[in-house]
Amino acid sequence: MPRYGFLLLAAFCFCSLDPARSEMSGREKIEAAKSEFRVCADPDNLPFSNRQGEGFGNKIAELLARASGEPLVYYWWPQRRGFINKTLNAWECDVVLDVPTGYDLTRTTQPYYCSQYVAVSRPDERLPSLLNALQTQPLRIGVVEHTPPLDMVLQQKLDPVVYFSDYDYVSNYPGRIVADVANGKLDVALVWGPIGGHFARQQSIPLRVAALEQPRDSNARLTFPVSFGVRRGDKARAERLEALAREHADEIATILRESGVPLVDDPAQCAAPHLHAAGEPAASTRLAADVSSKAPAAHIQPVADRPAPPQSPDKPQSEAADQIKCDGPETMEKLQKFAGRPETGHPYVVQDGKVDPTTYSGWIRFSAFCQVCHGVGGVGSAIAPDLDQAVKNLDKDQFEHIVSCGLRGNLGTGVMPAWGDNPNIKPYINDLWAYLRARADGVLGAGRPQKLSSSSSR
Fold this sequence. Notes:
Number of domains: 3
Shape: globular
Largest sheet: 11 strands, mixed
CATH class of the largest domain: Alpha Beta
Radius of gyration: 24 Å
CATH topology of the largest domain: D-Maltodextrin-Binding Protein, domain 2
Structural class: alpha/beta
């Protein structure tokens, strides 16, 4: 769900609730579900919803509640892990306004809108063909973790600036990536359309919002239908919502457009994910907004096509990865049998805080896929261990098995997921190993490293 940007992680504080409602019995909740239009919503998650009713979700809820003749009641809860269980499945509310069609934690209605990922840039950054521009122009590219554009950019061997979705709504909020385009920190932001369109309108300078093209050699999907979500067994409510959405389709579309949401009306592009064929055409590249700007461009050279990761003379990485057979997550006990020969030398080059291309690539992969659990630089978190210490007790073979197959916690609880089938991880295990070894050996800090020039690196 967070991967597609529909249910964004929000504030880390719990919201105050009406005491009378928070103490309702189960029977009272069931009765309220029959007579009120009860919406599960985040209190601080623009452009979708907030307590002040400023989100497009708030406006659609008001429209549908009015049309149904029922009073609109909100149950506020931050949209993070456990949101559905704390709200919808606890019978505190009955409708989630913005979920991906086919979302497996709820019953979903027929889509009531369809949108796409967009590229937000200043108009002086002319990008007639975005992916070609990204590969040939010195652009600083911003992407959000766990989204299709991140996969797409990494597949193109580009060097993105990754934004994390642990929003505190002060220094970090969904629109920060768009604001950084306006203030010159980024040249282009690749972001979910409703977020890009809304926050582009909030900037002091006008920005260009264009549909993101899909490269021909990428299977990253960039267009998604959006539905209302209800409890799995609540078929009658889903059907009522579908009828209301059909009856008020024009009004809903007006609300969405006025909120800056780029809408897609191509049935092939807007099919539910399980019905979407890989070979279908890409979304239109029409502009949602295109106006001039005097903001200066900030240029940073992208990553050049780097050589293949260095291979061990006795076991090339591709061969080693292909030979690893997983029968579920590994355990620390099982890992002992995979212990191999100690490494000779270091898998990284670090000089004055700068690193070779392989180690730098390892940092990119780590920050994009691993940092959300293991913390910046692998220093650990409440849900994942300190890798700076863990890697000191592992050799390369054991590390490859953990990354490829996953790892079960020492106490039999908690499981690191397997990454062996991920095309953005499997070919880069050497890179991750080099970065984490440099961290474990204490020769590299936790922040973003700088790259050595090609003449300085191995």
